[in-house]
């Protein structure tokens, strides 16, 4: 979380809830921890964190970060909390609360954990994959600024409190203002834009040079564009037995399949949003060509979750895009097939687990 009003020194204060954060490539908690460590370098900014499994290590020693771009350094949070209740008891007035946990609306409504933490001037920043992640927060906290963020970053938490940043550090952030889609404006829009821009300024001050401010419409296009990648690569890796990204794109039939899924999403999104993708957004062919250069053998996060017996981000990456498009009269049959198969596979596995406990 970040606040500019807390503390006698009136330093900014940011609170991160990143335990079990969404991984673009690998790691658990790594994405949130990495961005928290960079925000702490912004002048007059205090960054606190909420941890879970890594709480003891972080509370005792902070984070150790290694990075080819930023070097090796320690990040000791201003406050380290074991849970949201501890953060509430601190009475700190946060300027920003940054959420980088996995978005699992079929498991829980994570907006609930922010009850009692969101103050009059608090903005909520969502660094999460998929579509529709903003809706629960907008419904629970009407009138509050929600900054929607899409990131590409390679990082891993190799052991509790130890973060390895590899490469790729891009983050796009825009205010979530869905009423603009219907031509309406609200008096709070200017404040939302200002808070969004200020947050990106903190990222840049912390050394994240590739942090960009987008308006609501363009940020949603970014979300759909990244979803085209995630919705093709992630499920396909699971269904093909954990095939790495680089290997999938070198298989002729899988290449055709991946391109078909990406094209389906990329052609549907402009119809849903009523706007074309900007020219600078990569085509399916360009994305796949770039992936062919990936020789690291890395698997997408959904495949790692499946292998580790964890819940997958099926709803925000597959289910929500299908439902959003369907509400507007568009079907995505390739995506629907992936969703139906994986949702059933997950339900079957959960059922088997429940039976084994009896």
Describe this structure in words.
The chain has 358 residues and is α/β, with parallel strands linked by helices. The chain is 42% helix and 18% strand. It has 12 helices and 10 strands. Strands 1, 2, 3, 4, 5, 6, 7, 8, 9 and 10 form a 10-stranded mixed sheet that branches. Strand 3 and strand 4 form a beta hairpin. Helix 6 (216-239) packs antiparallel against helix 8 (252-273), helix 6 packs across helix 12 and helix 11 (314-327) crosses helix 12 (333-357). The chain is globular, with a radius of gyration of 20 Å. The N and C termini lie far apart (41 Å).
Number of continuous helical runs:
12
Number of strands: 10
Radius of gyration: 20 Å
Beta strand %: 15-25%
End-to-end Cα distance, whole Å, is: 41 Å
Mean pLDDT, as a whole number? 90
Helix content bin: 40-55%
**Which shape, going by the Cα principal axes?**
globular
**Could you list the spans in which at least 5 consecutive residues all have pLDDT below 50?**
3-11, 18-28
Largest sheet: 10 strands, mixed
Structural class: alpha/beta
Name the helix and strand elements from N-terminus to C-terminus, one letter apiece: EHEHEEEHEEHEEHEHHHHHHH
């Amino acid at each position: 979380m970040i606040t500019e009003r807390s503390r006698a020194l009136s330093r900014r204060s940011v609170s991160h809830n990143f335990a079990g954060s969404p991984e673009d490539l690998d790691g658990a908690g790594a994405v949130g921890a990495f961005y928290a460590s960079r925000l702490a370098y912004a002048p007059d900014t205090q960054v606190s964190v909420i941890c879970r499994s890594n709480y003891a290590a972080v509370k005792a020693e902070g984070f150790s970060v290694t990075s080819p771009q930023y070097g090796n350094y320690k990040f000791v949070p201003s406050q380290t909390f074991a849970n949201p209740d501890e953060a509430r008891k601190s009475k700190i007035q946060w300027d920003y609360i940054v959420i980088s946990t996995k978005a699992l609306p079929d498991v829980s409504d994570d907006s609930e954990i922010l009850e009692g933490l969101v103050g009059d001037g608090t903005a909520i920043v969502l660094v999460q994959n998929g579509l529709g992640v903003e809706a629960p927060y907008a419904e629970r906290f009407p009138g509050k600024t929600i900054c929607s963020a899409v990131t590409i970053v390679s990082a891993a938490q190799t052991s509790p409190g130890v973060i390895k940043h590899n490469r790729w550090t891009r983050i796009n952030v825009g205010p979530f203002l869905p009423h603009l889609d219907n031509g309406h404006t609200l008096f709070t829009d200017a404040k939302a834009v200002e808070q969004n821009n200020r947050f990106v300024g903190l990222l840049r001050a912390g050394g994240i040079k590739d942090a960009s401010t987008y308006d609501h419409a363009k940020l949603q296009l970014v979300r759909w564009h990244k979803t085209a990648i995630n919705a093709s690569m992630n499920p396909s890796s699971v269904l093909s037995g954990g095939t790495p990204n680089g290997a999938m794109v070198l298989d002729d039939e899988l290449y055709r399949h991946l391109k078909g899924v990406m094209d389906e999403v990329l052609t549907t999104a402009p119809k849903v949003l009523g706007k074309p993708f900007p020219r600078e957004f990569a085509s399916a062919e360009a994305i796949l060509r770039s992936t062919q250069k990936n020789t690291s053998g890395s698997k997408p996060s959904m495949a790692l979750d499946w292998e580790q017996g964890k819940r997958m981000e099926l709803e925000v990456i597959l289910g929500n895009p299908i439902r959003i498009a369907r509400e507007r009269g568009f079907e995505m049959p390739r995506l629907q097939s992936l969703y139906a198969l994986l949702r059933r596979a997950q339900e079957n596995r959960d059922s088997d687990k429940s039976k084994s406990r009896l």
